[in-house]
Specification:
four-stranded antiparallel beta sheet; Hypothetical 12.0 Kda Protein In Nam8-gar1 Intergenic Region, Chain: A; three-stranded antiparallel beta sheet; Alpha-Beta Plaits; Arc Repressor Mutant, subunit A; about 45% helix; about 260 residues; globular; about 20% strand; alpha+beta
């Protein structure tokens, strides 16, 4: 009986979701799960950039997306309460939490809301990738306030190592920059170069334009004009200025208006 035998994971990983005190686990292929996890994150980010109302994917979308082959990602659609011990989840628990006993639908929930015990290699590769991007962002946007010169990437990397700063596997590099700069500031003089900029986005592009701006900057003031256009004052790292303006120009076909208020 599978419920009584300890399961050997082999090269597989466990996908896990916990809801209302109940745990549900399923056996997954680590590489396929890793790639699909990145695909889902990219799809969510694209929706945010495009200003779509709902950024998250739905269970139905996951089940119907040909780019998400559940049969290849999951070794089976058996749902466990404790996979290593071979203890299966009860139909009652599955029905109470997911309103279904269909393992395929539970698998979709795990992909969207669950957590995975990634392999050591996968973790190391992703952390290294995020670390390089964080170092690049900081070195391009931060200066030594004492001499107004930028810090070379090597100095930033050394400070991160010295402080044993952990890179978050889930958060994007951009989301981690501010906290890391605050920690680095305890051992080297560092300041992120900031600018204030006024932006006016025409009516037809306000929804998508707002989402693009929010990814790059802190919105300090905003106002909706009588013609439906959106006007704001934003604060952002100086190094992101041209990238933001370029994206807004592409979105509005050159109709966005920008002006540096303070640099």
């Amino acid at each position: 009986m599978i419920d009584r035998a300890r399961i050997n994971l082999g090269e597989n990983i466990i996908g896990r979701i916990e809801k209302n005190g109940r745990v549900f686990e399923m056996l997954m292929d680590p590489d396929k799960a890793w790639n699909i996890n990145k695909y889902i994150r990219e799809e969510i980010n694209n929706r945010l950039k495009e200003g779509k109302g709902k950024s998250r994917l739905t269970i139905k979308e996951v089940l119907n997306d040909p780019n998400i082959p559940l049969e290849l990602i999951f070794q089976s659609f058996i749902v466990f309460e404790d996979l290593k011990r071979g203890k299966k989840a009860t139909d009652g628990d599955m029905e109470a939490i997911f309103e279904t006993t269909d393992g395929k639908k539970v698998a979709a929930h795990i992909l969207l809301e669950g957590e995975f015990n990634w392999t050591k290699t996968q973790r190391e590769e992703e952390i290294e990738k995020k670390l390089k991007k964080i170092i690049n962002i900081i070195s391009k946007n931060a200066i030594n306030p004492q001499n107004k010169k930028p810090h070379p990437p090597e100095r930033i990397e050394k400070a991160i190592e010295e402080l044993s700063i952990k890179i978050n596997l889930i958060k994007s590099p951009e989301e981690q920059v501010d906290d890391i700069v605050k920690k680095i500031r305890t051992i080297i003089p560092i300041k992120m170069e900031q600018i204030e900029m006024a932006i006016k986005i025409p009516t037809s592009y306000t929804a998508k334009g707002y989402n693009i701006v929010a990814q790059y900057a802190q919105i300090k003031k905003e106002e909706w004009q009588s013609d439906g256009s959106w006007v704001s004052i934003i604060n952002m790292p100086a190094g992101f200025q041209m990238e933001l303006i370029d994206k807004l120009n592409k979105l509005t076909h050159g109709r966005v208006q920008t002006k540096i208020v303070k640099s």
